[in-house]
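Folds abound. Consider this:
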Amino acid sequence: METTDLDIQVKTLPESPGVYQYYDKDDRILYVGKAKNLKKRVASYFNKQHDSHRTNVMVKKIKNIKHIVVDSEMDALLLENNLIKKHQPRFNIMLRDDKTYPWLCIKNERFPRVFLTRQVVKDGSEYYGPYPSVRTVKTLMGLIKGLYQLRTCNYDLSQSKIDQGKYKVCLEYHLGNCKGPCEDYQDEEEYLKQIEAIRNIVKGNLKDSLKDFKDQMHALAEEMRFEEAEKVKRKINTLEKYQSKSTVVNPKISNVDVFSIVSDEGYGYVNFLQLSHGAIIRSHTIEMKKKLDETDEQLLELGITEIRQRFDSMSPEIYVPFEVEAGEHVKVSVPKLGDKKAIVDLSTRNAKYFRMERFKQMKIVDPDRHTNRLMAQMKEDLRLNEEPRHIECFDNSNIQGSNPVAACVVFKNGKPSKKDYRKFNIKTVEGPDDFASMEEVVYRRYRRLLEEDEPLPQLVIVDGGKGQLSSGVTALERLGLRGKIPIIGIAKRLEELFYPGDQYPLYLDKKTETLKIIQQLRNEAHRFGITFHRNKRSKNAIGTELEEITGIGEKTSIELLQHFRSITKVKEATFKELEDVIGTSKAGLIYNHYHTQNEN
């Protein structure tokens, strides 16, 4: 069955929370959905027949898939709402009406009220959210009411009206939920301190509120007011358990474009997030092929111009990871902390996911391009003079000092070349000596390649630290190859890479493809060497018992084991059965050895 572009897109989706968008052949948006795991959710549309006719019709129309990666399911839910309202996709029903998610409002008034609302009114009030459900906001409001005494009435508490005695305290005052600012029982400055504490809690900054409550608790305890101190302690416990933070939406970030870039040897990937009224309404990533080894700054500047023109963006401010030129009328900000930095990081993460997907698609559609990119990356990461198209890795195996062997595995163009693997019995070294064994096998391997005029590798890796590397260098030196073949050692514990003559190791990023290839080489050499060692040890252990019989050697032992399959069956065999396999003389030696033992 032929693999389609859509199949490749589904297979290379990340297994992360996010929002996916389906498009038809005319690039019209069909559907926006959210997912805890993008790959599983999107794949579920294509691997079965759906009960709903409408869903089956939609799936047949899908020709392209786009997605946006976010931090959590909650963020995906909020982002889905924003995108559906923005694009009104044909097959979305649930979120098309005028309803919106709830916000928490701190009203712009004297003695501000704090309440839940679905309507954002531009009257100077502060709005936090939106939250994914009313229950979430009610939980937050319950926390706030439990910590602070705020008014719930909608009176105009101007000082003149309070002085005129227009209002009377209500039941909330008598229940202890309000301190009665309507009758001037509470100072405005004290009330505003509570509002500032609430702002910090909503933003996720609990440090100041916790400190204030702990100071109150200690002061009350010193005054022997233990019941009141216990109430404050309960507030501290409630506050410490509370967490509320969204990286997708922040009401203070409005009408802003966010750009970021990740790049490799041949391509740059620029991601664009568009924010409106504090929410992401668009995400788009473009791939840019390098022509003249352009810098990230040059690529990002070109990408910003292209994307803003394509989407006709008039946002007066952009957030970027580093300084760029974006025109006279655009403010360029490079956030260092807080929500603005978090939104730039989110853009970078989307660019990285897009790049990884392109790599996965490349392996399927254009394997040569993938290999060329990987080799260029390894050359740069490992500071080599040429691409390591042919790599060989050595590993010693001498468990408990017995049957010392070594293995050499070969990778060509980043993939195992198993026909070129080689096994070595250690011949010149007595006992378990990793350094001497490494020198022997490296010397034997490349002496043979030189004698047979075979091509030498562009990189040699030895499994071990400075000692094994030094042994490998000595072997190359004996052959006159030092400096002609790059050789490095990899230490297991911290994945350190050692170079000849360099005191300090090289540490590669744990996620780089270069380190993954080296780890794969090391693990494959270890597996191949251990298998060879075990087979040899097992064979020796079985053969030893027969070879201890005077007159019976290794060749006879192998013939018997190949025929009878086990030592037990050799012991139980009749003289005639043994004679048919190894002849009369040797059959007599074995038969008499076991049957005489049994009689004794």
About this structure: The chain has 20 helices and 18 strands. The first helix runs from residue 5 to 11. Residues 243-247 have pLDDT under 50 and may be disordered.
